[in-house]
Amino acid sequence: MFDWGKSYMLFGPEESLAECQTIEFKEASVCLPDDVWETYSAFANTEGGKIVLGVAEPSPGVFKVEGVGDARTVMRQFWENVRNPQRVENDVMLPDGVSIDCSYGVDLVVVNVPRAERHMRPVRVYDKKMKSFVAFVRRDVIDTRCNDFEMRLLEYDALPAADRRAIEELDISALDGNTIASYRRLFNGNKPGHPWSLESDADFLYKIGALAKDRTGRLCPTLAGLLAFGHEYEIVGHLPYFLLDYRNESSGNARWDDRLTSNSGDWSGNLFDFYFAVMPKIDALLLTPLSVSQDGASHRFTNDVKDAVHEALANALVHAYYGGQSTVRVIVKDEQIVFENAGSFLVDRNVAIAGGISDPRNPTLMRIFGMVGISDRAGSGLCTIYATWKKKYGSAPRLSESYAPAKVVFELPIDCSVAGDAGIRGTVDEDTLLLLCRKEQGITAEEAAQFFGVLPRAIQKRMKKLESNGVVVHEKKGRSFYYRVRQTEK
């Protein structure tokens, strides 16, 4: 007979019950347990989740459904406490956030804790042992007290424009003059005739939000201005863990084929210059070079794929948290491009992907980039990237969040076999490829890719097949692999 009860068990059969990042079980046979507030705070400060009251844990990792003796009373106790400012600093619950589930034959109380909106973080609860309010975060199945880095991130996100604050110990000399000049040329090209074009550098930077007045009226860099235009050594003096890192690991021949880091000392090391240094590197790999006007000021994207990649790069820079232990990393691999930025999601990831809501961690930085046509979308960036990738590559990007330290990872998978016109030109003729391999020293995948107008990984895949069939061999010379036709014995 079909067991309708089991088929509608909220969390599956009892023997398969398990806690995770967003599910916590607690025994509540008599009353509301005290430790429910640690989990409430942890869920609110992280991804949100469900607290299920009425499930015991007789041994580690083994759960038993026992039920709640008086579910209505437990619900009332929860609502009374969550609205009590002496117990909970911020009530993030929705009106229908607590319910009774009977799918296991007993009453369970299910508390749906949403991710707290940024202005309500950190969500603290009163700790009776500490005799103070404490904030928790969720780490897998553990509720743990926030460390200093996590508290700073939560407090930073709670401020509406944290990147607009003036850094009073610095002045305009902390900013790179060449970067400012490049930005102003781009601004003039994108906004010809704009009245700000006639302003001095100091007045111009003040109006775009890169400078602010301190308590005495002196102009000094804002956090956004320092990040966008500052000398790397000045940025690190204020943000010790600041690092921008680009790596091309697409060939698989070495640890990396190309790398650019902000701490190399041979360039400014700021966000604006990093964006325009990395953009052409990725464009070259995608074989969709940037179209730039003759005056070098304005830019236009030539296709949807490149547009999406540039948006992903801008998103990583604008949404990163720069006060933590890591910042921004861009890695080009054989089958994907990966963008990593420090910080957590500010809105639910599904809401962000759906589009229509723009809630940048660094709104002043987004304004600075947006005024020259970079990252100027009204909350539609991720939505557009997803649509483009599904259309061109037949697969969706992967957006994930990890912790310790908090980090957002955005992966754009690239499948050469279905790319079509998605930034990949030309086809590989096998006879011509073998002819190239007959050169005395052979040919590298990069050289063959340039000849055919395809990505190096497309050549690498073809060479791997030819090598497995015994047609070509490869040997390493320096940092590169050279392919040549196998010599047959006479």
TrEMBL record:
SUPFAM superfamilies: Winged helix' DNA-binding domain (SSF46785). Residues 19-140 form the Schlafen AlbA-2 domain. CDD domains: HTH_ARSR (cd00090). Pfam families: HATPase_c_4, SLFN_AlbA_2. InterPro entries: ArsR-like_HTH, RecG_C_sf, Schlafen_AlbA_2_dom, Schlafen_AlbA_2_dom_sf, WH-like_DNA-bd_sf, WH_DNA-bd_sf. This is Transcriptional regulator.
